[in-house]
Amino acid sequence: MANHKATKKDVRQSKARNERNRYYGKTTRNAIRDLKKLEEKAAAGEKLSDVISMIDKLAKRNIIHKNKAANLKSKLSKKVNTLA
Question: What is the CATH number of the domain that holds 44?
Answer without folding.
Answer: 1.20.58.110
